[in-house]
Amino acid sequence: MSPPKSWLWNPDLPGVELHTHLEGSVTCDRLLALSEKYGQTALAAECLNDKGTEYVFDGFFGFLDLFRKVTLLLKTPADFHQVALDLGRTLHDDGVGYAEISLSYGVMLKRNLDPLAIQQALYEASCQVLETHGVKMRWLPDAVRQWGLDKAWFALEAALRTGPELGVVGFGLGGDEVAGSVSLFAPLFAEVRAEGLGISIHAGENPASGQAAADSVRQAVDECGADRIGHGLGAVSDPMVMAMLNARQVFMELCPGSNLMTGALTQYSDHPLQQFLAADIPCGLNPDDRSLFGVNRKQELIRARKELHLTEEQETKMIQWAQRASFDPEMRAAAE
Ligand SMILES: [Zn+2]
Questions:
Q1: What global pTM score does this model have?
Q2: Count of helices and strands (H, E) across the chain
Q3: Which superfamily is assigned to 15-21+74-335 in CATH?
């Protein structure tokens, strides 16, 4: 497929999403269709409510298990292509003009899927989405923290094979933060940086971990060179970490709706969005796993205005920050 036409920032689609997972965007209908295609309807039934209209899970580890089950039904490049088309349409309907979408190369490799063939399918889907909906999609392969450094190297090698020509603009780390220090991955992220890819790391997701959550954010930035942090809730408990985030202008990919759903927050209104804004730390709102959590950009904005006192001026600033924090040169140029 030919490269996408030159993309221009469209003010009618003002949303910029930098933290959204492809696997977490599989709609309930798509999951049911995939489960029928593969004769695994029992698996879909474990993921959904009785009506098949909502995902169900209990707490963070329940969520990780749900995420794992959903990935079991993504088997071929055509499956990923279809999910990406679904997501492109959803992004458009949700007012999002640009999105960087994470996808777990770590999981693909574990399941003996070929990231190159899948990335080609995703790139073709993103060309179609750009043509049809005017939404630009770029890709962030990631590794799974709890599977360790050796496996992460294989995921990075695959990401370097797919590369910018197939829309890959960065590399990330997700999974279970408690399973191991991000410091272990410092050599890997040095290579990511040397290869010219952006770095986004999930860190400080569970504030109940106390100082460990703050340390996790510090290590991700200080030792792994993270340009962006996914979640980062733990940072606010440590003024030194907040000062570092401000000094380096690290972008925080905030996901309050997700944090509420996984139990990282007990109340939406506990989210420290205003603390990041007051500290002049770049940040934006993101859905994380929009279908699994049943969240979207428009609902998140309404709730943040109401419960986190987000102002129109702050919203505008967050969009500008997100544009500048993108790993895509064309998106960054649009921010100038
Ligand atoms: Zn995430």
A1: 0.95
A2: 16, 8
A3: Metal-dependent hydrolases (3.20.20.140)
